Amino acid sequence: MHTCSNEHNVKFLTVKWLVNKYLGTFWADPSWSLQGIQARIRDDLYLEISPQKAWNVRSAALKIIAGKEGEQYAKLQCYATEIRKTNPGSTVIYDLRNGVFKRAYICLDACREGFLAGWRRIISLDGCFLKTRYGGQLLSAIAIDANDCIFPIAYAVVEGETSESWRWFLQLLGNDLVMENSHSWTFMSDRQKGLVPMVQALFPAAEHRFCVRHMYDNFSNAGHKGKTLKDQLWSAAMATYVAGHEKCMMELEGLSKAAFEWLKRKPPSEWTKSHFPTNSKCDMLLNNLCECFNKYILDARDKPIITMLEIIRTKLMRRFQVKRDEMMKYKGPICPKIQKKLDKWKDEAIKFNAVWNGAAQYQVTGVEGQFVVNIATSSCDCRRWDLTGIPCEHACASMRVNGLVPEEYVHDCYKVETYLKIYNHTINPISGQDMWDKGGLSQVIIPPELDPPKPGRPKKARKKSNVELEKNSNRSKLSKKGRKVVCSICHQEGHNKRWHTQPITTSEAATASTTVAVDTNRKKLAVTKKKTSFNESNGCLA
């Protein structure tokens, strides 16, 4: 009769064996947690593995799924050929230096043609870090569709955000979009390193806006802190007409002369709605388009290069299909997000009184002041209608006088018909790597140099801005800043009992024990009182 117990730690349970057994599970869930792996093995095999072995199993399985990082660079030429073959008209260009990979640019034909089918020529530019051993960054050009959602145009893998890499990316983008006359184009960015001079050099007549959130970070870092100054900056940025902007700037000058001078040095055409041209039909102040795209592809940014590019292409392929099918079921002349904005202005219109002049103009009076609306030119003194192409509250109040329908005066760029034209193009799937055409390979692409390893665990979370830190701070919790700490042994300030380093005398020990006894009695008394009050509330006494 055996009396020994079962052994739960078996050293012959190798990583290779576990990877082969659970590879299908990793395919279905690449983010399978270490605790989940340990629990699954415990349930299936009645065996225990350490967290380190679980981590090794997951790493080995993900390497098999994604492919070895260095080997994928040699397949880039085949990948580019496959994209061009399955998606005719697409631009796939890679840049080499003595056979070593430097950059790769992709603009799918469906993305380019979909963007050109829309009306709004506004492009958001940004870059995000790639979290592989080879490092690098992903530059992206993101537009906005008829429903005010992101619409990716092109993206590129580069060595970093430098003047040279931005010039290379913008030149290819300009060629794809035929930007011969940049006067009607608008760019939005975060003042990235090397980007601003390249936009000025390549597209000198284009409008270039800068994200107000990032400008506020610089404003705050310059020493202009506080909610009052922050709110005043945003009021100046949100003002849609010049007089309103100047009023906000005068109020800022009264609050802080230094803050006013700092902001005065920034050209207003770069950051305030009151000075934006009206051709783009977009009053956007933030670079949210690229930030949304960076989050959209977050799960791809730590993968080998071809795996990452394929994840992005597959996401876009499905996105086009889903967006198109959803909008085909929608009943209405303008897109749902735009209809929601218009409904808001229609509700606000009740607060205004409009007087018609018998032609196309109306005089609209309300708490905010008096404005002139011209129905024929789709304009209002407040410039909201001019900037966005959506009738503002003053325009809606004017239309109510003669029973006009505001939906009929929304710009064509927001129509469902335009939306379907944008997403009418399809991104075609491609075959697996083993079926790619390997003939005609002109050269072998060598991976770039590895980034030097950094100490500690690699950081995946990005640095948060001042605005995000303010939002995430727990305001209900009192800060310990400025609080005096007193030692209960020596009664000196600057440390507590735990950090008392001097030898404890007999009197100090007695004082400390008395303090502990008093504290203990107080706690017991408090507990007794709670129990008594609880019993009394239930009609009985302890």
TrEMBL record:
It comes from Rhynchospora pubera. One of its GO terms (molecular function) is zinc ion binding. Keywords: Metal-binding, Zinc, Zinc-finger. Transmembrane segments: none annotated. PANTHER family: OS05G0489400 PROTEIN, POLYPROTEIN, PUTATIVE-RELATED. Residues 447-480 are annotated as: Disordered. PROSITE patterns: ZF_SWIM. SMART domains: ZnF_PMZ (SM00575). Residues 371-403 form the SWIM-type domain. InterPro entries: MULE_transposase_dom, Znf_PMZ, Znf_SWIM. This is MuDR family transposase.
